[in-house]
Amino acid sequence: MFENSAAVLMTPPGAELAGLFEKTLETSFDKVDLKYLQQNLPELIVEDLEIAQIFEMEIESNTVRVRAVGSIYSGPNSQTEQPTTWSLLGSPLSSAIACSLAKVTGKPVMRTGSKIDSKGKSVAEEYAILQN
Hints:
The chain is of the alpha+beta class. Helices cover 35% and strands 23% of the residues.
């Protein structure tokens, strides 16, 4: 099937973390909707898993915006650039969010924007839910 393909298949770096989200919430994301994620991910990420100090999620049509402050995935040194793979694929947290969105919607998801404050403490990202 992939004999002459120029594509590379890889497991998203946040796949296992997205699985942990489901396990901790005791649900399968293919059985819930975006509103469920919006209501449950902040407490999960901040209180239960202590991944970030603040986590916010906004949904507008086919666009999802998230903001994380004080994330453990802010990088090895928040004063320096993120590792190359993070600039291409996002952090494990941003990848896990994309995986979760894709599973909830049943559609491909693309990270369309990422903004990190000058001290690396706050990350704002935008995801597009692609239509067929």
